[in-house]
Structures are given as C-alpha cells and as structure tokens.
Amino acid sequence: MCAIFGMFDLQPGDDLAALRRQALELSQRQRHRGPDWSGVFVDAGVILVHERLAIVDPASGAQPLRSRDGALALAVNGEIYNHRELRGASTYDFTTGSDCEVINALYREHGAAEFIEHGLPRLNGIFAFALWDGAAQRYLIARDPIGVCPLYWGHDAHGRLCVASEMKALVGVCADVAPFPPGYVYDSVSGELQCYYAKSWRDYTHTRGHEVAAPVLRQAFEQAVHRQLMTDVPYGVLLSGGLDSSLVAACAAQFARERVEDDDRSEAWWPRLHSFAIGLDGSPDLAAAQIAADALGTVHHGFVYTFWEGLDALPEVIRHIETYDVTTIRAATPMYLLARRIKAMGVKMVLSGEGSDELFGGYLYFHKAPSAEAFHEETVRKLDALHSYDCLRANKAMMAWGVEARVPFLDLEFIDVAMGMDATYKMAGQGRIEKAVLREAFAGALPDAILWRQKEQFSDGVGYGWIDGLKAHAEQAVSDREFAAAAARYPFNTPATKEAYFYRRIFEQHFPGEACAATVPGGKSIACSSPAALAWDPSFANAADPSGRAVKGVHDHALA
User: Fold this and answer.
1) Is 361 in the same domain as 434?
2) Which site among 59, 106, 337, 467 is 20 to 30 Å from 120 CA-CA?
3) Does residue 558 lie within any of the structural domains?
4) Are 533 and 419 found together in one domain?
C-alpha cells in the first residue's frame, strides 16, 4: 500500500514547474505511507505523484506505471490479489511485475466504457487509483468496493480537481475536501460518478433460504487468506486472541511455508509466521493471544503499553487517522503503538481481522436483532460504513509507520459467500453465541478457549483500564463550561460526551473547517451499532456507548 496525489484539469498557461513543486510538497504530507520511493508524472493536463511502499516487485514496480508507448500513466494505492490470473489472460505488453499494472492492461484492452462496466468489477483487491490517458486527454479515478484504501478529493481555488490518499494532503488547498465514495469511479469525460459495484445480496430477499455449508465457508475463507499472502517482503499477522484475528492467523499458518507468488511450488522467503499483540499489563487480549500463538506455533511478540504512553500518542494518532470518532480513536491508539513496534522489526505487511463482525453480525448488539431481515440490513449498513470506521482505523494507524494492513475477511470473493448466506443462520441470541456459524465452520482449528471466546472490541480487549482512563482524563481536560457550550462551538456532530469533545478539539487543530468535520459520520451508537439499530431494544436509547460492555445481559463484564 502506498500514497497517491493527483492534480487534474490543468489549463494552458498554468505554471507546470510551480504546480509540480506544490504537488510534491502536498504529497510529502503523506509520505509515511510510502517511504521507499517517490515518483512524479507531469503532462499538459495532469500531475501524478506516488509515494511507494514496496510489497510486490520491489525491484521494478515503481510508479506512476507507464504503458510502453507512454500514453497511460497510473498511480495506485493498493494491491490486486488476482493479478496473476488477469495477467495470464491479457495480451498487454507489461513493463513491470507490479500487481497493479493489470489496471492499465484492462483499460487499454477494453477501452474506458468497457473497463468501467466489466474491467473494474474483475479486480479482486484493495485500491484507490488515478489513471491518465494522454492520447484521449481523459482520466479515471476509482476506489475499491469496500473502501479499504482511503481516498479524498476536492477542488483548489482555481478549480483544479485534486485527489489524495489522506485528507491532510488537501487541507488548506481544497475547501470542499470529501471522501471519494467506495465502489465508484469518476470519468472526466462524463464528469460524473458511476457505481461499478452492485450486488444482489444487498437485498435480503435474494439471500432468503440460502445456507452455506460449513466446509464451503471454511474453504472460502482459507482461499481468501491464501490470496492475500501475496508478498515479496517480510510479513506477519495481528493476533489479539479474538476469534477473527485468530482465524486469520490459523489460516495463514497453513500456507506460511510456501511462496504464494509461485503457486506454492517453492519455500517461502520468510517461512516462520510472526504474530503481534498489544495491551495494557494484564489485558485479556495479551493472555488470549498467547494461547492462540502457542497452539498455532507462531513466533509471537506480545507488547505492553501504559495508559500514559497511549495518552501521549493521542494527538499524533488523531492527525494520522483523520477522525474524531470516539470508538475509532480508542482502538487506533494501541494499534498505532503496535505498528511502530512492528516496523522496528522489519515487517512491512500484516494480516488483520477487520470485517468479520460486519459480515457475520459479531458485535454484541446483534443479539437483539428482531428478525433475520433486520439483522441482514444492519450488516449491509455496517459494510457500507466500514470505510469511515474500522478500515480507516486499520489502514491509517498502521500506515502511519509504513506498515500495510490487509483484511482477508473483506476479500471480495469471500464477501459474496458470507453475504449471500441467509442471516437466519448467522443470528445470535437465545443461548447462541455471536458468529456461531463461523466458529462451527472452523471446529478444531483453534483451542476452544479462543474459538468460543466472547466478542471483545479491540479497544476493550487491550484492557478495560484504557477506556476508563480516557473517560476520566477527558473529565479533567474539558471543563463543564466548555462542554456546556459544545453546540455553539461544534454545531455539526456536536460532541455528546467530554471524551468526544476532547478528541474533537485535537482534530480541529489539524483539520479546521466544516468540510473536514463533515468527513466524519455522526449519530448515537451502542457497541458500534448504526443509529438505526438503537431501535432494537428500548434500553439502548439510554445506554448508548461505543464499548461492547454497554450491552447489558450479553457482555460478561457489562458496564454498571
């Protein structure tokens, strides 16, 4: 994963040399995402900058990627997991071994319209890209269907369209900065956004009665993990000891000995699987992670952080993750600290467990879902919002130190399997634990203490003292007078707690203005629910808190 910056719609008479310098300076704000190399492309109508984190083809895959005739220029942040399949079916004259070059190939072979309709949906990966066709004076901008890779856009004072992997590259330049929507492509010829990712499973009626056998579900996820082990650099797995990260680690351990990039025919360059965990001293996650690591035989690294180390990091965490959402900041801080440790060990890519709770209704409030249809509709809402929450957190917290986080549960082929299942088979409650269908599919893969461990949100699992300490600190850091005037100072998404006010105040220092504030969604939530799910239980209205401990009668250590 990398960083991209693009400036489009340059006009005759524009000072290209000055704009090139400006583009480089703006892109430098996100160079932590791509510390290995910087590349620049300049044409009469466009400037592209790429900050590279070399994961696949470190020797020759520098960007922007050019076609042999020089007409196409492509800047990509991401990975294309099915690139070998697409490359094998292509007649395009490839110039590198980069997985991302298949985007140029699909565009050149099919043309823009066909590429949008049929080429983009063929990409199984995580990506945000800008493609320039110099011959046609045309550009396309696109983002992966779930929004695992971040992308922002806006216009400068002269009407030029700017895009960047992180918002900080556009602040002060674009007054209308906004997230680029996942699953969409922008075509400069039409001047319109077009959705290229539309799935029948979004409608519950298309899934009704469809059961996925346990062996099929298990194999689909194992294949997803295998695809995402595509790497030419040292990698590891994040292992919190929860179900999701432990399943990722269990599957990765099966394939770690062979090199995925040559179809498992040769020994892997780094055959020992390393796992990483973090928490406060005595945290539930550290203890559970050690149990999982011992069972799987990983080389395990469990790190302890203190409350004050986390608190000291908060301003930098908020600057990097570009949000004031309470849950996201709580969880991002230990992840940010862990990423620094991982980077120090020479690891450049990790697999993580994000997405499982959205696919299978893993958050504890799902126990209260009144029907299978309501359950399914909430999973769709949660998937649609992932780019603003867990995907944003995992990507930006890790990439703050140049470590790429991959999310096998959000592999597009696996999503089709998981979301195509009737939610009746996913439902929890009445003695049935959350994500039981997933646990049953992986019977024997993990110790029972891990396979059947109750859901703990990451910010809870690192140690309950983390959240409790943040709340207590915010009570002291924000005066009653300040908080009473919160609506006047922040009329949009007014902070509902002193903790939220504390984070908002830090966010505003780095990202001033209404447009930046509007990039963060709002609304009440319980245990990471959408606002719509608060109607499932009357008690939710008065107990709204992002911690899983807010779900009384379900969480083993519910808040009083």
Assistant:
1) yes
2) 59
3) no
4) yes
Assess if residue 559 is contained within a domain. Answer: no
In a domain, 557, yes or no: no
- Whole-angstrom Cα distance, residue 549 to residue 560? 9
- 316: exposed, middle or buried (Cβ count in 10 Å: 0-12, 13-18, 19+): middle
Q: What integer pLDDT is reported at residue 462 of this predicted model? A: 77
* Predicted pLDDT at 206: 98
CB atoms within 10 A of CB 312: 13
Residue with tokens 């986390």: 310
Enclosing H/E stretch for 140: strand 138-143
Q: What is the pLDDT of residue 460?
A: 66
Domain contains 560: no
H/E stretch holding 380 reads helix 372-385
Give just the sign of the alpha carbon dihedral 63, 68, 70, 71. Answer: negative
Nearest to 61 by CA among 76, 81, 42: 76
Residues 114 and 224 grouped into a single domain: no
| Assigned token pair, 531 | 């606002």
3-state secondary structure at position 277:
strand
Domain hosting 241: range is 202-550
CATH at 446: 3.40.50.620
Q: Are residues 156 and 215 part of one domain?
A: no
The residues of the chain scoring below 70 in pLDDT are 1, 457-461, 527, 541, 543-560
Angle at 439 between CA 264 and CA 258, to 5 degrees: 10
Asked if residue 107 lies in contact with residue 131, where contact means CB atoms within 8 angstroms, the answer is yes
The pair phi, psi for residue 149, each rounded to 5°, is -90, 130
Q: How many domains are there within the chain? A: 2
Q: Just list the catalytic residues.
A: 2
3-state secondary structure 529-548: CCHHHHHHCHHHHHCCCCCH
Instruction: Tell which of 136, 165, 198 closes a domain.
Output: 198
User: How many other C-beta atoms can be found within 10 angstroms of the C-beta atom of residue 118?
Assistant: 12
* CATH number of the CATH domain containing 106: 3.60.20.10
SS3 for 155-190, per residue?
ECCCCCEEEECCHHHCCCCCCCCEECCCCEEEECCC
